[in-house]
Amino acid sequence: MDLKELYQDIILEHGKSPRNFGKCKNYNHQARGHNPLCGDQVHVYLKLDKEKKVEQLTFEGSGCAISIASTSIMTELVKGKSFKASMEIIDGFLNMIKGGSEVKSNDLTEDQKIKIMSLSGVKQYPMRIKCATLSWHTLISAMENKDKDVNTEI
Prior knowledge:
Layout: H1 3-16, E1 29-35, E2 40-48, E3 54-62, H2 65-78, H3 83-97, H4 110-117, H5 126-143, E4 150-151
Parallel strand pairs: 1-4
Antiparallel strand pairs: 1-2, 2-3
Helix pairs in contact: 1-2, 2-5, 3-5
């Protein structure tokens, strides 16, 4: 199996069986995101501990396979990480998806780097970039405890 097939398999698996789907108990941060162009909607639920470590990260929503897969992968990669490490992973992903190189982070295992890189092909389809990045921008809003919805068209 070549790398492109592996990446497609990861996206399909996460799109069909998203991880961390549903509302977590005792969340203390949340945010909603909407992509009106595609119809993707996401609601991120986040529980940060006193040191701002991500204890829980779940989501609800609907959308295309890219949107759901990206959100599912995001929850797996960020859960358990410190605020600083989480923001570095998010920034690395957003830079990669908008045309940068691979995500480099000492806080990701090799398997986690493969998962995040599975979304790198999206940058070849400009209309799909917003689908892939919606939940990541929504997570930033939740982590920063902003009280406004994320909209890809604003």
